[in-house]
Design goal:
Length: 122
């Protein structure tokens, strides 16, 4: 029902900022909660941030709280992840996903993008 495409990843240095975008196509973007997740080589996929369908509620993993901000623009069918004060530990493939409820739980999300690589060097 919805297709997701992430963009904005790249190679940056410690302390730099990036803004990831996730563009949605198909009907009903505003009816979905959205989340950002990441997976580093050899590690489990982990939740990063989530936002309710109207943007009124957000949640963050403790490791990124205060540094990352999730937002959405329903008129543009796009969700963003602003990442500040990046650290090498943030290096991962970042995925956006859509689901029926606002949650940090990975299994609740039904639709996934292809991912975008973020690499943070020292």
């Amino acid at each position: 029902q919805v297709q997701l495409v992430e963009s904005g990843g790249g190679l940056v240095q410690t302390g730099d900022s990036l803004r990831l975008s996730c563009a949605a196509s198909g009907r009903g973007f505003s009816t979905y909660a959205m989340g950002w997740f990441r997976q580093a080589p050899g590690k489990e996929r982990e939740s990063v941030a989530a936002i309710s369908r109207d943007g009124g509620a957000t949640g963050y993993a403790p490791s990124v709280k205060g540094r990352f901000t999730i937002s959405r623009d329903n008129a543009k069918s796009t969700v963003y992840l602003q990442m500040n004060s990046l650290r090498p530990e943030d290096t991962a493939v970042y995925y956006c996903a859509a689901g029926p409820i606002w949650t940090m739980r990975i299994s609740a999300y039904n639709y996934w993008g292809q991912g975008t690589q973020v690499t943070v060097s020292l």
